Amino acid sequence: MLVSAKEMLDKAKAGHYAVGQFNINNLEWTKSILQTAQELNSPVILGVSEGAGKYMGGYKTVVGMVNGMLEELNITVPVALHLDHGGYDACYKCIEAGFSSIMFDGSHYPIEENVEKTKELVAAAHEKGLSIEAEVGAIGGEEDGVVGMGECADPKECKMVADLGVDFLAAGIGNIHGKYPANWKGLSFETLDAIQQLTGDLPLVLHGGTGIPADMIKKAISLGVSKINVNTECQLAFAAATRKYIEEGKDLQGKGYDPRKILAPGAQAIKDTVKEKMEMFGSIGKA
Ligand SMILES: [Zn+2]
User: Fold this and answer.
1) DSSP states of 131-196 as a string?
2) Fewer CB within a 10 Å sphere, N or C end of the chain?
3) How many whole angstroms from 170 Cα to the centroid of ligand 1?
4) Looking at residue 262, what is its pLDDT?
5) Is the predicted pLDDT of residue 203 greater than 90, yes or no?
């Protein structure tokens, strides 16, 4: 059964580790992530962007697939199904469809409007037992066509949004989505520290986990980050493994054209990536 992400992240914050949010794109992605979490006895959050939800045939399709796998694959570790960077309407759709967690990304609204809409969605989510994430300060890079500049959130605005009753908070601290450019300045630990001082026990979320060096990840966790989003890294690993299979001509040998065979190396690459991240985040054995 899907669970809200609140309890797993409160435990992570208290225990000084982080739970990974791994975004899903299809059945292989979902199965690889769930099986790895189960094998490693780790809690896990499945992230679904609006674009990925549409691609997979709608939010209800995603809920049906994930719930089916939890049952048929005997997944017993805590799993949250989370809308990633949801707009106002998508949040309501996911609450209705059976997600167990949502993120309302109101970072592009003026702060007053972000506050107003967040307040409303906190009430709607909590009424149905879902957890809710909010974002302050746009996170750089591009995700599903939404381009933001890397910026650092204002700690006072973070405190204001935290006080609305959100369960965890994403704050820009110089992190960006996608691959990091060579001239990236790194995370602003000064900003993160200032945010945590004002928001206390509230779990903080680090978006754009792909390519952030391990020492920076560990330092961020020590300063209150309890949820780390990983998306691009699984995509890169899947693409490289699939490319290798085709380039080696394996699809032309025997029944190598079988889609289950073509997708197998990519699925294994996702598993390896998820395992590596769970080790780095410290969530193994914490289910
Ligand atoms: Zn993000």
Assistant:
1) EEEEEES--BEEETTEEE---B--HHHHHHHHTTT-SEEEE-BS-BSSSPPTT-----HHHHHHHH
2) N
3) 8
4) 98
5) yes
Q: Which residues pair with 169 in a beta bridge?
A: 134, 204
Amino acid identity of residue 148, one-letter, is G
14 within domain boundaries: yes
178 is in an annotated binding site: yes
User: Rounded to the nearest whole angstrom, what is the distance from the C-alpha of residue 65 to the centroid of ligand 1?
Assistant: 23
Q: pLDDT (tens digit, 9 = 90+) per residue, 120-163?
A: 999 999 999 999 999 887 776 655 555 445 678 899 999 999 99
84 in active site:
yes
Residue 183: inside a domain, yes or no? yes
Q: At 186, is the pLDDT very low, low, confident or very high (cuts 50, 70, 90)?
A: confident
Amino acid making up residue 227: K
Amino acid at 47: G
Mean pLDDT of 70-76: 98
Is 30 annotated to bind a ligand? Reply is no
Cα 207 to averaged position of ligand 1 atoms, centre (Å): 4
Give a yes or no: residue 287 inside a domain.
no
Q: Which two tokens stand for residue 155?
A: 């700690």
User: What's the DSSP call for residue 9?
Assistant: H
Residue 111's domain comprises 6-281
CATH assignment of the domain containing 85: 3.20.20.70
Catalytic position from the list 10, 84, 154, 167: 84
Instruction: Look at residue 45 and tell me if it is in a domain.
Output: yes
Task: Indicate the number of domains in the chain.
Answer: 1
For residues 194 and 160, is the Cβ–Cβ distance under 8 A? no
Q: What does pLDDT average to over the chain?
A: 93
